[in-house]
């Protein structure tokens, strides 16, 4: 009998963790991984902040996995454009969709269309050198910026805006972003969330790093730090220890003497929601409404009050969530921005005929968790896939059915990627940095194919 041949769409952490689980199983699986970019690793490359190099060390695990003879990488191949999902389903035994949630959520308020009103997806992709965002319309010529959201991505955005240029120059931040931030006039960042410090979704390490930045004056919304008896009791529960640590860190920052002038300022504001972005052709201010919290202490909702206030700013960055994008002929939950599934198996799959569909990562559960969360998530999906296989719910195709699939773009394999990687790291060493990222796909392809031996041949998959 032929070996099960699985295609994974997406080469971020969830895709690699799914490949890891498949290849460690006793099912004799072969794995082909597809990504629309020539570069693997997804958000590890384009989402993790450049000053957090330690987090990126997880790619060593992925690199080791890629050396498995039963693993193949197909970079620079966009499913739905360079090759159809239906065609892949006719050639592979099962498909795991692990392409993430790449769409930022814009602010649902008047004025969000104005120039300099962007999402965190835009900004993070821009400073990390993602090819889709290198030409972002971004102007850092105003002294004030507003970041909407109280999660770790919002923290990254605020920290990068306020970071010392010399510090960023030691990272792998994209060259165009490094130069723009060197010339930036932003001196004040307002980080605003709709609920209180108890409901904020920071992790303590990220929060402590932000509030401990040197040469940044921290101004905390003290009124929002006043807790009632129920909230104090809630924080004392052992299960809420992480939330209590966050509140303690914020209280400590609020207690510091903030009268001394510093080069930059961070204003941490709670209980406020944007209601409009003001400006004629570009952002000039953001109007907020003050909220109050209602409901049980473990599930309090923000309810708009009657007091409004405005913050002058030349830039707004919305960090209020990420959404997946639908694929043709695949079920999609438009409200949640995910592919509906049960334990990773796409709902409505008939499990006969075309290869069944499974999902992993953010497109499966939404944009939650950290990189490590994806290992357990992918493991659940692979267990469901292998259970279906062992129960005979989907057949393994005969090798005669696996005719090669012609690709409509030059394929980048893992050896090609390593040439790109080597070139970036070499350029980085020459300037005292971990790497200098290529941000042009054409430049990546040129480096990738330069070292290949022999004449170019038509690329095929499967």
Automatic annotation (TrEMBL):
Belongs to the ferredoxin--NADP reductase type 1 family. FAD binds at residues 14, 43, 79, 362, 369-371. Its cofactor is FAD. One of its GO terms (molecular function) is oxidoreductase activity. The keyword Oxidoreductase applies. NADP(+) binds at residues 150-153, 194-195, 206, 369. The keyword Nucleotide-binding does not apply. It comes from Bradyrhizobium erythrophlei. Keywords: FAD, Flavoprotein, NADP, Oxidoreductase. Residues 5-211 form the FAD/NAD(P)-binding domain. This is Ferredoxin--NADP+ reductase.
């Amino acid at each position: 009998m032929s070996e099960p041949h699985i295609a994974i769409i997406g080469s971020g952490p969830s895709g690699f963790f799914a490949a890891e689980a498949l290849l460690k199983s006793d099912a004799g699986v072969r794995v082909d991984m597809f990504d629309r970019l020539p570069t693997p690793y997804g958000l590890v490359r384009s989402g993790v902040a450049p000053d957090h190099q330690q987090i990126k060390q997880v790619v060593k695990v992925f690199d080791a996995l890629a050396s498995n003879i039963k693993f193949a990488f197909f970079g620079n191949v966009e499913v739905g454009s360079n090759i159809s999902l239906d065609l892949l389903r006719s050639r592979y035994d099962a498909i795991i969709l692990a392409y993430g949630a790449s769409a930022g959520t814009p602010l649902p308020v008047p004025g969000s269309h104005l120039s300099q009103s962007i999402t965190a997806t835009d900004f993070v992709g821009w400073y990390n050198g993602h090819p889709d965002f290198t030409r972002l319309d971004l102007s850092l010529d105003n002294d004030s910026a507003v970041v909407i959201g109280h999660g770790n991505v919002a923290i990254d955005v605020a920290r990068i805006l306020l970071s010392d240029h010399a510090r960023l120059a030691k990272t792998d931040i994209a060259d165009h972003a490094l130069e723009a931030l060197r010339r930036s006039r932003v001196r004040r960042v307002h980080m605003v969330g709709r609920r209180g410090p108890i409901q904020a979704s920071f992790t303590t390490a990220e929060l402590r790093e932000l509030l401990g930045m040197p040469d940044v004056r921290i101004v905390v919304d003290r009124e929002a730090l006043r807790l009632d008896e129920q909230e104090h009791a809630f924080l004392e529960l052992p299960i809420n220890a992480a939330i209590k640590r966050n509140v303690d860190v914020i209280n400590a920052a609020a207690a510091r003497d903030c009268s001394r002038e510093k080069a930059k300022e961070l204003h941490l504001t709670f209980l406020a929601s944007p209601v409009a972005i003001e400006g004629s052709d570009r952002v000039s201010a953001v109007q907020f409404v003050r909220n109050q919290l209602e409901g049980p202490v473990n599930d309090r909702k923000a309810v708009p009050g009657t007091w409004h206030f405005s913050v002058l700013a030349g830039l707004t960055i919305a960090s209020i969530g990420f959404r997946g994008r639908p694929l043709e002929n695949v079920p999609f939950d438009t409200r949640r921005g995910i592919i509906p599934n049960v334990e990773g198996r796409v709902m409505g799959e008939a499990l006969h005929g075309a290869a069944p569909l499974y999902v992993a990562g953010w497109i499966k559960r939404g944009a939650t968790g950290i990189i490590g969360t994806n290992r357990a998530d992918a493991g659940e999906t692979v267990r469901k896939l292998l259970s279906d296989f062992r129960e005979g719910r989907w057949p393994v195709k005969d090798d005669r059915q696996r005719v090669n699939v012609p690709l409509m773009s030059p394929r980048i394999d893992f050896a090609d990627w390593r040439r790109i990687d080597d070139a970036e790291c070499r350029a980085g060493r020459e300037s005292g940095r971990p790497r200098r990222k290529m941000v042009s796909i054409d430049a990546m392809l040129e480096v990738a194919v330069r070292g290949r031996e022999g004449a170019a041949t038509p690329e095929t998959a499967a």
